[in-house]
Design brief:
With 272 residues, the protein is of the alpha+beta class. The protein has a domain of 121 residues: Nucleoside Triphosphate Pyrophosphohydrolase (Alpha-Beta Complex), CATH 3.90.79. Helices cover 26% and strands 27% of the residues. It is built from six helices and eleven strands. The strands form two sheets. Strands 1, 2, 3, 4, 5, 6, 7 and 8 form an eight-stranded mixed β-sheet that branches. β6 and β7 form a beta hairpin. α5 crosses α6. The radius of gyration is 30 Å and the shape is globular.
């Protein structure tokens, strides 16, 4: 008898709780059940992926937006373009091999004398990136513009000093190893397969903040002890025979090698 009384009491308690809570509300259209409501999504997956890859997201309608990326209070930022120039060479066994043409910069240049680089330079007023890269190659390698076939626009790189570098994969016809002594000490060629098959050495640099003498440290939280974030930079090195291909040039070649290995449409450009 006692057990029956207890069971009835439990049933009445449950009924009373249900009555006090009222009818259960069904989910609104489009509302997920069993999950806490998520905050508004500010970035799409494509935008996040593009940001990680250092490129512009392919957002619907974006092509109609004004572009002020290169407008600054000090005038337009410098825009540069470089080429990954490919030449086809016939080997002793009769097979063909694609090679990349590199330059060693002249020793008397103001910027980066003696460095290993790819052909290219700064855009002139009114030029597109493609026009810049063809003009710079023609000047530095002493070739005619019609010898250049642009194959693809590659990933835009950001130099350590903040400038955007447009990168083009191209093929040179009838290149005979010439160069302009005003800008180039010499040129040399590296088989493209070397970059496709070789993982470069990589090192991490940490770039510190050096404050100006008149920087108003008393105006910021923490003063001289403000916790500045340390910028990290990956430095890429390739070693081919006696040549050291590193820095931004190394990064460009690493990125190009990845694209040519992993993207079928890109691989087709060099398959013949």
């Amino acid at each position: 008898m006692i057990l029956v009384t207890v069971a009835l009491a439990v049933v009445w308690v449950v009924i009373l709780i249900v009555m006090l809570r009222g009818p259960r509300r069904g989910p609104k259209p489009g509302e997920e059940t069993g999950k806490q409501k998520s905050p508004a999504v500010l970035w799409t997956e494509e935008e996040i992926r593009a940001a990680k890859e250092g490129r512009e997201p392919q957002t619907e309608g974006a092509e109609t937006l004004p572009d002020f990326r290169h407008a600054t209070t000090n005038g337009p930022a410098g825009l540069f373009a470089v080429a990954i120039p490919l030449v086809r060479r016939t080997l002793a066994d009769g097979t063909e091999e694609l090679r990349v043409v590199f330059e060693k910069r002249a020793e008397d240049l103001d910027r980066q004398p003696g460095e290993i680089c790819l052909p290219g330079g700064a855009a002139e007023e009114g030029e597109t990136a493609a026009q810049t890269v063809v003009r710079e190659m023609s000047e530095e390698l002493l070739i005619r513009p019609e010898q250049v076939t642009l194959l693809a626009r590659m990933k835009t790189m950001r130099a350590a000093y903040g400038n955007d570098i447009a990168v083009f994969l191209c093929e040179l016809a009838d290149y005979e190893g010439t160069w302009s002594e005003a800008e180039v000490a010499c040129t040399f060629e590296v088989p493209l397969r070397f970059f496709l098959e070789t993982e470069p050495d990589e090192y991490e640099n940490r770039l510190s903040i050096e404050l100006a003498e008149d920087f108003p440290v008393d105006k910021i939280p923490g003063g001289v002890n403000y916790p500045w974030r340390m910028r990290k930079d990956r430095v890429v090195f390739y070693y081919y025979e006696d040549w050291v291909i590193w820095g931004l040039t190394g990064k460009i070649m690493k990125d190009a090698a990845y694209v040519l290995r992993e993207v079928p449409e890109a691989a087709c450009l060099i398959a013949r």
